[in-house]
Design a protein that fits this description.
The complex is a heterodimer of chains A (275) and B (267).
Chain A lengths: L4 E4 L9 H10 L1 H14 L5 H26 L4 H24 L7 H6 L6 H27 L11 H25 L3 H15 L16 H4 L2 H13 L6 H25 L3 H4 L1
Chain B lengths: L14 E15 L6 H10 L4 E15 L3 E5 L6 H8 L7 E7 L2 E4 L12 H11 L4 H15 L14 H14 L4 E5 L7 H14 L5 E5 L3 H7 L2 E6 L2 E6 L1 H12 L5 H4 L3
Helix pairs in contact in B: 3-4, 3-5, 4-5, 5-6
The chains are: A mainly alpha (275), B alpha/beta (267).
Chain lengths: 275, 267
Amino acid sequence: MSTPLQVYEPFKAGLPKLGKYWKSLWSRRTFIAEHSKSELREQHFDTAFGQFWLVINPLLLSGVYFILIVIIGGKTDTMRYVHLTGTLFLFYLVSNSLSSGVKAVTSGQRLILNTAFPRIMLPLSSVVIALFKFFPTIIVFIVIKAVVGSAFSIQMLWAIPILLITTLLALGLAITISCINVYFRDMASFLPYMTRTLLYLSPILYEASTLKPGLRILEYVNPLFPILDSWSRALVHGQNPELSSMLAGLGWATGIFFIGTYIFLSREREFAVRL
Amino acid sequence: MSSLSASNIHKTNEIAVSVRDVSLTYSTTIDRRPTFKTRVKALARGKKQTRVVQALSHVNLEVEYGHVLGVIGANGAGKSSLMRCIAGILPPSQGRIEVYGSVSTLLALGVGFNPSMSGRDNVYLGGLAAGMSREEINGHFDEIASFSELGDAIDAPMRTYSSGMFARLAFSVAAAVRPDILIIDEALSTGDAKFKEKSLNRVKELRSDDRALILVSHAMQTLRETCNDVVWLDKGKVISRGEPNQVIDAYQEFLQVGKSAAIDEDV
């Protein structure tokens, strides 16, 4: 067998060899899964109470927001609650990816300083954790939908590609924000305000169709808008999502993922001296 | 998954690591915790926000299979930076490093560990972080558990461990990795005197014709007993390289402390 040769030379800028990088990342998949599981266990999500909290937390939040809608907007119907719950659960997938991803690199200091591995593994692991937290909420959503008597239809299968697009967007955002936080450590302090603003600008507390014409611009400037609108149409109303919304969501997710990954990969080799 | 276990038969004196004219210069922030606030403040006051560090300067080095190279030098001499460059953690700013074989680093103990999990779980986490596969860890688990001397405590959460117990398990996991080239940076000073001796014996066991070892340590007696060659670094430059006793004596003379007990002691 020939001896494997590794050559380390200076780099100015740009990306590492992507084929080799991907191979190295793939070879670490067991570690990514184990690392994510250990983080979940640290947050007690392997216990019955932990999983209960995982479900009850977004459910309570949706309850609070529903009361808020009733108080501000007057009478409302049960479908509104189904919309609120469904979109809030998906929003939390992105929000949890961001809150866990922002410190993914800075909290992985010991790993980065002492082991050679693809650094993108760290924000990737944050998204895996957010997905683990998201999946139980799907069951809760289905139960709520059944209880209020909302019809189940074949159009609900659109949820699969929408979830894939959302995961790609969450990954792109987590990769970008984890890299920014290396250079600006107060990014983590701004994040709750940013996610809260994103929540209000997304069709969660209201439906996209009820938006005033003057606020239609939100459809174009908020990456989550077309995704959540499509999610609500498919899962809540049992309709086909609009093609334009699906394409807009995919465009945003792909763009953010590629730009974020480029920034991350071109900077990751200096993380060891920045931490 | 690519295995870190040595899979190639290397002949003694074959080159394992070649470091050619390597320099490492990097800029780092002056503030320990860079923030938007400090960046804006520094910009407003026209202050510099980064400083340039020259960690290594024109280092040339070769390590052969079957050899143990010791690396000595004062704090800040560039020892750890050189090890990180060889391990591929830090890219050099100048020169070229060629590594012929799989490398494992023991630069710090307990990398990848999660204190809220049991020692058993951390054996897997630490092993995977070090690049081992799950099958390899399964194969070495009994050896790791027995070497750590933790007994039933291996199933207790690591946050309940004493620092000695933590270090013993961390060293046991790290010592189970069988790479072609092993880099150990100050990791032998773990646990009590008995465990230190046991760790040193394990490192001596790892010396073999088809493996290269690089040992960074302030424990001069250990280096004298273990190494074939010693290189002395100061301010990022190689001051001297050669027969261990000769280089270590020159280094100790340079430090003006002579062969005091303090420097011969494993610390």
